[in-house]
Give the backbone structure.
Amino acid sequence: MKSELVSESKPHWYSIKEAAEYLDVGEPTVFRWMREGKITYRKVGDSTRFWREDLDAVMEVHHSEKDLENLQKTCPQCHAGELVEGVYRTTGLNYFQPSKTKFWTLKVSNIDTKAFMCDRCGAISIFGDTKQLAALVEARKKGEEKNGEGKEE
């Protein structure tokens, strides 16, 4: 029974060969990522080892436009599928304001946000209104063109 407890808590180390198989890439790719600093690895004597978390972290996710709505429904911490929409409140105002917006437009430049809390781990995600941001960016571009590229008043 003691050996069962030890094996459950002991992390599984991946060799370079196992890491390449897990990621479905060749061993030379794993070596290149190590040289480029794209993957975290550990040295045990002369042996190179990886934790599963190291291997999972090297994978990048590129979401399509279609997936953006679903992305806001998934917890970024525990990846649970149930986020509860609500209001994030503090003793002060919390909002996103792009840099140098006072030069962009006379319109209010605070961007509305939505907050979601994961019902599994309690992480709070805050998402801004991207359409409102796009309108501010467009107003800035028009202002720069009107005032002569990049000059601020």
